[in-house]
Specification:
Elements lengths: L1 E2 L4 E2 L8 H13 L1 H5 L3 H17 L1 H12 L3 H25 L3 E4 L2 E7 L2 E5 L5 H15 L2 E5 L5 H14 L6 E3 L4 H9 L6 E5 L2 H12 L4 E5 L5 E4 L5 H12 L12 E5 L3 H13 L19 H16 L3 E4 L17 E4 L6 H4 L6 E7 L2 H9 L3 E2 L1 E5 L3 H8 L6 E4 L15 E2 L2 E2 L4 H6 L2 E7 L1
The structure holds adenosine-5'-diphosphate.
Length: about 450
């Protein structure tokens, strides 16, 4: 595991083979009966205690994530401590309020735990992704085997210790480390599982769904995105444009729901580009451990090379570089720095417009009227998330209703503020939802008793 800022090894982990994966699933199976028999209120209390422990240990957890993949420490504290704490507390509340049984047409429908859940998670928001899956599965009464991303194994151990110290049985939450093709593949094909919840690339998700199909194991897939930020002509541009710039480049664009397509009114192009340049001037690239850093390095050399390739292809497609050059900036402290880039004038079928880059690259798509804005937003293979910005909430909601995505955020609402709202996508962004009561229900089965 390499710290991408210091470019030094911070530790090593092994790669679990199929036998080790099998042992972990068997272990998770041993504690399933006892855990699924606990009262939902007991499980909710344990999630609340986990939140308390995560909060107490938050500084260490945020620093670990920051070293593993270069996330600026201020962002890590907000998204890898505060966000998972609120997700845990909201999942505890959802567990207490959940309709564990209801009457329908003379029958009683019971929501029962699905069984053993595998969680396969990425490196970009590692703690949040783990907590979103593990908290919901445990809340449902399932036990869990987690395979964290190979780049970020150490924060996973810290999170697990919060769950175990809060009262989850040690066998009920196992971790297997390793890469996708070995450990991830063995885990998703394991016949003992009830459900695989995966977050990562489209290719990884397809492999998981194929492997899981062998045992008819259900899957939840949270995959890529090329999410639009639609700025309506009545928005206050001076306020909105810096925010749109910030949210597209959160975590240096390494976020599946980063709004990396800016759908903007052509009538205000000149003013908008001035505001974008000013926003880029306020970005601070540097040591992730420095609280004033807004953009760290990309997570690895491999990721940096992938992004550079995307930028070179965009240049060949005739992109105009509104901001940035597309070179690495080793003077910032490592070879993994790329300063924010904003591209314009690309043809609609250019790869930079259509494909997820997972780096600090925003693409402007100008529109002449609102119908065109909606068409541009929906002309996308992905459907994870979108933002709409407007001077009128009603106007923004009307446009939100037209967008083909799983989640729309109006005027800068953040997941942190709404941790019980389901998250997940359409089209090639995958299927299924995480968070809140809907996320909990993913890990239950319905059992109907008619009498
Ligand atoms: P990213 O490009 O974000 O790293 P990946 O899909 O490669 O996305 O990785 C996300 C997670 O999925 C990681 O934990 C990785 O090890 C795992 N993974 C990758 N490929 C597979 C696969 N074929 N089967 C199961 N898990 C996989």
């Amino acid at each position: 595991v390499i710290d991408p800022y210091r470019e030094i090894e911070i530790g090593t982990v092994g790669v679990a083979d199929a036998d080790l994966v099998d042992a972990a699933v068997t272990e998770a199976g041993r504690s399933l009966a006892a855990w699924s028999a606990t009262a939902p209120a007991t499980r909710a209390d344990i999630l609340d205690r986990t939140a308390d422990l995560l909060e107490q240990r938050g500084a260490e957890i945020a620093a670990t994530v920051s070293a593993e993949m270069g996330m600026p420490i201020t962002l890590a504290a907000a998204t890898q401590r505060d966000l998972p704490v609120s997700v845990l507390r909201s999942m505890a509340a959802a567990t207490r309020a959940f309709a564990w049984s209801e009457n329908i047409d003379g029958a009683v429908l019971h929501r029962v735990p699905a069984g053993i859940v595998a969680a396969i998670t990425p490196w970009n928001m590692p703690v949040h992704q783990i907590v979103a899956k593990v908290a919901a599965a445990l809340a449902a009464g399932c036990t869990v085997v987690l395979k964290p991303a190979e780049a970020t194994p150490f924060d996973a151990e810290l999170i697990r210790s919060c769950f175990i110290d809060a009262g989850v049985p040690a066998q009920g939450f196992a971790i297997v480390n390793g890469d996708g093709p070995t450990t991830g593949a063995a885990l998703s094909a394991h016949p003992g599982l009830a459900h695989v919840s995966f977050t990562g690339s489209v290719r990884g998700g397809q492999a998981v769904a194929r492997a899981a199909a062998g045992a008819l194991t259900r899957t939840t897939l949270e995959l890529g995105g090329k999410s639009p930020a639609v700025v309506l002509a009545d928005a206050d541009l001076a306020t909105v444009i810096p925010k749109v710039f910030g949210s597209g480049l959160v975590n240096s664009g390494q976020a599946c729901n980063a709004t990396t397509r800016l759908i903007l009114p052509a009538a205000h192009a000149g003013r908008i580009e001035e505001l974008l340049v000013a926003a880029a001037g306020a970005a601070r690239l540097g040591d992730p451990a420095d609280p004033s850093t807004t953009h760290g390095p990309l997570a690895s050399r491999i990721q940096t090379d992938r992004v550079l390739e995307h930028i070179a292809t965009a240049r060949e497609s005739g992109a105009r570089f509104v901001i940035g050059t597309g070179e690495t900036e080793p003077s910032r402290g490592s070879d993994c720095f790329i300063a924010p880039i904003v591209l314009a004038d690309l043809p609609p079928d250019a790869a930079a417009v259509r494909e997820e880059i997972f780096g600090p690259v925003l693409v402007i798509q100008y529109y002449d009227d609102e119908a065109q804005a909606i068409t541009l937003a929906n002309d996308c293979q992905y459907g994870l998330s979108a933002e709409v910005w407007s001077g009128s909430t009603d106007h923004a909601r009307a446009v939100a209703g037209e967008l083909e995505v799983g989640q729309v955020k109006v005027n800068g609402v953040r997941t942190r503020m709404r941790p019980a709202v389901p998250f997940g996508g359409l089209k090639r962004s995958g299927y299924g939802r995480e968070l809140g009561a809907v996320g909990l229900a993913e890990f239950t089965e319905i059992k109907a008793v008619m009498s």
